[in-house]
Amino acid sequence: MKNIAKIICLLVALCICLTCAACGTKDTNSDAKADTVLDMATNAAFPPYEYKDDADGFAGIDIEIAELIADKLGMELKIHDVEFGSIVGGVESGKYDMGMAGMTITEDRLKSVNFSTSYANGIQSVIVPADSTYASFEDFYTGFDADGNPAGVKEGIKIGVQQDTTGDIYSSDTPAKWGFGEENVIRYKTGAEAVMALTTGKVTAVIIDNEPAKSFVASTDGLKILEGEYTNEDYAICVAKKNTELLNKINDALKELTDEGKIQAIIDKYIK
């Protein structure tokens, strides 16, 4: 009897262990979720590409394009508003299916994720106070060498950027590569914070994508955009390297939407 009792106790213990183990694993419906929900990471402080509307919902170019992609894939779009710098890591780890936030393809990002075909073009512009004596960003440099590259940065120049953006990456480079040096760049969590720093005199200029720049200047007194482009780049969607199936589906959807004229219609709706 004692042996039978021991066997029963062992079986009960084994059942408990298996139950606990099951509780610690992913939901058995995770595959179903992956097939029906498209988790998108963005940073909703980048108008007109992504921002919060008056009803505290999501709006913008990227939001509308993502919704059309989800429709093409027969999936429900779920948007996660996160810090820009955490998007690539979140996609790489599988926390999010894709990242879409006015994001440019860079060599550093390609080490962690893959990118879709481009769906829009972006320009990095320079915002300064309306009474600024600087006519272009070239005026921030002390001069140029024989090859036409900047020789150095003028004393007191401070550039505000949204951290981890291409504006941050390019601005932080050396003057020889048309940057301003790490020591002359101040990073902020959002473009809006960088612009606020500009209005209070904490930075000389803000470098950010042209369309958000226009939105910030339109909504903030005493600012202007300098003539000329700091950089010109293409926007794309990032996807985990292991998720090639989703990347291919997104690229197919982007091609269809482009051929149908729907992507350009969305861009034209926001950018006049």
Structural topology:
Blueprint: H1 2-24, H2 30-36, E1 37-42, E2 45-46, E3 50-52, E4 58-59, H3 61-73, E5 76-81, H4 87-93, E6 98-99, H5 107-110, E7 113-115, E8 120-129, E9 141-144, E10 150-153, E11 159-162, H6 166-171, E12 185-188, H7 191-199, E13 205-209, H8 210-219, E14 223-225, E15 231-235, E16 238-240, H9 244-259, H10 262-270
Parallel strand pairs: 1-5, 1-6, 11-12, 11-13
Antiparallel strand pairs: 2-3, 3-4, 6-16, 7-16, 8-13, 8-14, 8-15, 9-10
State the main characteristics.
D-Maltodextrin-Binding Protein, domain 2, 5-stranded mixed β-sheet, 6-stranded mixed β-sheet, globular, 2 domains, 272 residues, single chain, alpha/beta
Molecular structure report:
- It is a single chain.
- The protein has helices at residues 2-24, 30-36, 61-73, 87-93, 107-110, 166-171, 191-199, 210-219, 244-259, 262-270; strands spanning 37-42, 45-46, 50-52, 58-59, 76-81, 98-99, 113-115, 120-129, 141-144, 150-153, 159-162, 185-188, 205-209, 223-225, 231-235, 238-240.
- Strands 8, 11, 12, 13, 14 and 15 form a 6-stranded mixed sheet that branches. Strands 5-1-6-16-7 form a 5-stranded mixed sheet, with helices on both faces. A 3-stranded antiparallel sheet has the order 2-3-4, covered by helices on one side.
- Residues 1-33 have low confidence and may be disordered.
- Helix 3 (61-73) packs across helix 9.
- It contains 10 helices and 16 strands.
- The longest helix has 23 residues, at 2-24.
- A hairpin with a 5-residue loop joins strand 9 (141-144) and strand 10 (150-153).
- The chain folds into 2 domains: 34-119 and 236-270, D-Maltodextrin-Binding Protein, domain 2 (3-Layer(aba) Sandwich); 123-232, D-Maltodextrin-Binding Protein, domain 2 (3-Layer(aba) Sandwich), CATH 3.40.190.10.
- The protein is α/β, with parallel strands linked by helices and 272 residues long.
- The protein is globular.
